[in-house]
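the three lines:
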Amino acid sequence: MSLLHWAVLAPFIMAVFVPVLRKKAALIHTGWFVLILPIVLFGTFLQYLPVTMNNNTVMQTAPWIPSLGIDFTVYMDGLSLLFALLITGIGALVVLYSIYYLSKTKESLHHFYVYLLMFMGAMLGVVLSDNVITLYMFWEFTSISSFLLIAYWYDRDRSRYGALKSMLVTVFGGLIMLGGFLVLSIMGNTFSIRELAARAPELNEHPLFLLAMILVLLGAFTKSAQFPFYIWLPDAMEAPTPVSAYLHSATMVKAGIYLVARFSPIFAFSGYWFWIVGAVGLFTMVWASFNAVKQTDLKSILAFSTVSQLGLIMSLLGIGAASLHFETLDDNIFTAAVIAAVFHLINHATFKGSLFMVVGIIDHETGTRDIRKLGGLMSFMPITFTLSVIGAFSMAGLPPFNGFLSKEMFFLSMVQLIELNLFNIETWAILFPVLAWVGSVFTFIYSMIIVFNVFTGKFQPEKIEKKPQEAPIGMLISPIVLASLVVVFGLFPNLLSYSLIQPAAAAIVPSIIPAGEQLDVHISFWHGITAELLMTIGVIAAGILLFKFMPKWGRVYDHFPGKVTLNQFYNSGLYAAERGSNAITNAYMTGFIRSYLVYIFTFFIAALGFTMWAKDAFRYDASAAAPIGLYEVCLIVVLLAATLTILMAKSRLTSIISLGAVGYTVSLFFVIFRAPDLALTQLVIETVSTALFLLCFYHLPKLSRHEEKRRFQAGNAIIAAGVGVIVTLLGISAHSSKFFPSINEYYVENTYEKAGGENMVNVILVDFRGFDTLFEISVLSVAALGIYGLIKLRLEKGGETNENE
Amino acid sequence: MEILMCIVAGLLFAAAVYLMLSKSLLRIIIGTGLLSHGTHLMLLTMGGLKAGAVPVLGEHAATYTDPIPQALILTAIVISFGVTAVFLVIAYRAYQELGTDNMEQMRGMDTDD
Amino acid sequence: MINLPILPILLPLVAAVLLMFLSKSVKAQRIVSVIASAATVLAAAVVLLKVKADGIQTIDMGSWPAPFGITLVSDMLSILLVLTASIITLCVVLYSFGSIGSGREAFYYYPIVQFLLVGVNGSFTTGDIFNLFVFFEIMLMSSYVLIVIGGTKVQLRESIKYVLVNVISSAIFVIAVGFLYSVTGSLNMAHISTRISEISAEPIITVLAILFLIVFGLKGGIFPLYFWLPGSYAAPPAPILALFGALLTKVGVYAILRTYTLFFYHDQPFTHDILALLALLTMVAGSIGALAYKDVKQILIYNIIIAVGVLLFGIAVMTEESIAGTIFYLVHDMIIKAGLFLLGGIMIYITGTSDLNKMGGLIRQYPALGWTFLIASFALVGIPPLSGFTGKLLIVRAGFETGEYVGAIVVLLSSLAVLYSVVNLFMDVFWKKPEIPLPETKKQTASLFIPAAVLVILSVLYGVGTEVVYPYVMQAVDTLIHPEIYIDAVLKE
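prediction for all of em together
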């Protein structure tokens, strides 16, 4: 266990102590204790910066299940470090923010911080694990902690609904992803990502390659809320806002991005990867930005916006995959896409994090997040307003903020696709920049909505619960820090270039970097009048126009009825699943034993009949059979007559006596077939059971025939005949297939010499197979106890029923 | 003879199944009785019938009937007697408590649990 | 020390007999039950170590050499399951003190539980096919009595169905043994195995394979033979349900695992394909059932069926890896099912109902119960590092490896159905606002909670400590994949 192992485990360990702290130090907000951890971890991770800047890596292994090749291996490279810093950095800010957001007295803080710490540890585990199985484990932990955090206010129906939804979608993805990992492990014979990447060329040739890729991508897409799996994210907004800022914007939803980036070295050689990741990402970006505009809840806008931005990053990673097809680095335009992806990932965490916190402040100070109720808050909350302008303008891609830079790089990558001659893209290439542009226009519009619908316009005091005022300074610190980063990264992007972006990008496309060299990631503000700049100007122009005339064209959204949304699909799907399964189950689980027996016997007939037919298993060989004698035939006639009597009997007594007759005939059979002991036993037992039958049914009313319909009876007869035929055929075949002498020879030889008896059956019973007899007696004892209990113990009479003992 | 006995056992099975599929509890239990008779006859047949003398050494015969199935049947007879007894008592008590011997009225999936 | 393997059967038997004479004093019964169960656990543990060190342990009963007498065979699989079953029984006995009620206690509840354990342990251990039938009968007879003990209306009604189905399955079992005897001339399982491999091409063997599948499938609850199960299992009180859910169906699965690796491994394209198909249908049917009900007992019961499907799929794939997965999962499922049923029993005890619509809000007063249940649920789903994971991992991986893609994906997705059903249950019972506010006073549940929690902790340890369990499981797998090991140990050739 190394320092990095402990860094992953520390949040879990801390989580154990949180309830104690909450109890022992109730006067101090638990958050203050928790805050220490992410700060310390952030500092710890910073120390790895020099390592990764030189494209070096750190790997340490702690064995867990070495027999299965499952180890807790931490692997630190540029990509992992970037995420680790995001997780702990934003984590610290979010914890600080939450201290002011969540009341010490009203909320069950220990739960909140336990979940939050669990999440932090799990997320660190995801980004630092080299072993896919441990990665999967932490991946599911993030889903679980997210579930618990969304359901933090668990007595609200919406919270539980959102929590369950997010869990179902993300765990579904996780399970499928596990399938992908397992397929990969079969292909590459290892669970280690690093080793898999080393074998990438040979994996590419493997017939299971595409299956593995699709399964892994499903995991990534569900987690990162890509179309059509994004539906869980808007409902996840039921979580307290610090959680939304942390999990559902800055970190957890980026786990899918991380996964795609991490597996790029393995999968990205394939054209499918380029197409699937690029197209799904881009479509998600447009779709979600379009939908964001119609939302009225600020957090919903941000949720859709997050989906859209994740799509943007995803599409960049997809396009970046093309870079792996070029040998040289010089004119490689596609590494630019990867660099843009990494850069935008950082930028998104900063501006979206601050925007979520701003929305949290608005909610906290006014009591609502509904933009129809808000307006004119600028004068009440000037600092919050400034923060929201910085965040939203950066998101819209306006200079001089960091979002402008990465958006430009995004456009550049899309435009350059047109020039590309790869994967049959020519025909469709033009769609990429067009969609990117359209998505950006909508992004611009909702960014404006966030700023102007809330802070300008008419103040409507009658619609909000509280008198708005500026938030306490503690609550403002975190968004201020993030907003300053937005500005700083915007003005000095090269602060990040070689410290974080280059190492991370290098980890995504390692194979194209010659030994000892680095990617060129110099980011500059001004490129001259380029296509991407023109696109940005176009976005601003079109965006302003559309924003101004929103009421005029906003009605297009009415043409998208609620019925056909994916959300509706999920809801009705779930409803149908419950209802449908209930209907199905009730249809066959009739509670009527006859139905069950019909299923069982039908299966008996079908399965055995089919097997006998398919295997041609019927054998008939009467050569070894004994001759048929007159006595036997007479007995058979009697037996069948008695059986028939039972079937036809109207009275209880007749049936019981006929059953006795059958029994006695069977014992006569035993006599004829040289089994005197059996005959005697059968006689005695038959007599006793007939008596028992009579005893039990003496007091019952007349045997009611329970009028049964003809069809009912015919069905019974067919099934009965089927079972009879199958049993007969099996018996004849088994009899005709005697391949070996029986072990009974041994008994003939040894009964007298070794066991000292003469009657073989008796000796077998009491000696050779005495063990059987011992337990046969046990069966009888249990039966006796049971009968005694049945007759004597009647719980319901005393009012005592099953479950309230 | 063995072939014939296989058919007889099959017929007993068929009759048993037919009875067990009916609604009346008594008929069902009688069905289980027939079922065990069929089972035992089938088991006996599997050892070969009348292939030799009674499996008692005092008979001093050249060949004996296979004693193993007989031993197994003895065990099985006793066990099925125990089961039948318990089944009967359960049926008796069920009739007392539930007031019916019609299986169709013993569905009770959701109403009274 | 040569007779060790018989102890896990003999101890409960002696205890049961002793308990029959102690029926007057409930206190004495409780003490003897606990001591006997603990002793059985201990004995099983000793045998386990012995098997680990020296390989398969056999006893020829009455010193008659195999295959002529009855041979008890403790291979690693048997003893692992015996140990698990004994631990579960101990926990259930402890749980019963606070829940089963003095009425049942006075009417031989404890001896019958011990008899049940005799049947279960015997079934796992015996090396003789007819003796297996006898142990099945002890187990079944005890279960008949347990299901009906107390004689409430539901119990009586459901026990009739339960007894009837099992009478039929026993009858088929007997004729199946008869057929097998006719074909192979033997009853000793190792001996039968050698003889079958000499005539492996005979179609009758395949037919017998299917016949035995029906027999054991009826016990194990596979599709389409499980229909009797949900109703019957829901009738008795929680501890009995826990015993049934954890042990009885698993004996059926064990018997399929044993016979399909020892007897019927010659025509795999046919038999194991049918098995795979049934496994898939079982998982699907179980999942549908688990989503269908808003009832604590029903949801958990249908989860038994899903698990049986997963296990069956592992057997059907029939590689070293999948069999390892099956064994991992079998032991896990026994422990966690017992734990879940006991926890479910506590919820029912607290609220007086098993209807989810009438429950709610328990988390405030019973947080430990809630979180334990949630952990157990995640273990059931197979979230690592909890206990269900390793088994599922191996089974799914083996499925992919042998080209059973659909099956492997269905196993994964069945986990989603499990997740949905148990998390919904958790949310409804613990989080939802109750319709009727809960009473202020908290019910005492410690005596019930501790045995249940022990099982859950055990399950967690089993998952985290996979590495420790691994060599044991692999030894069991070795015997199953290479039947010669088993045969040589029994026939000593």
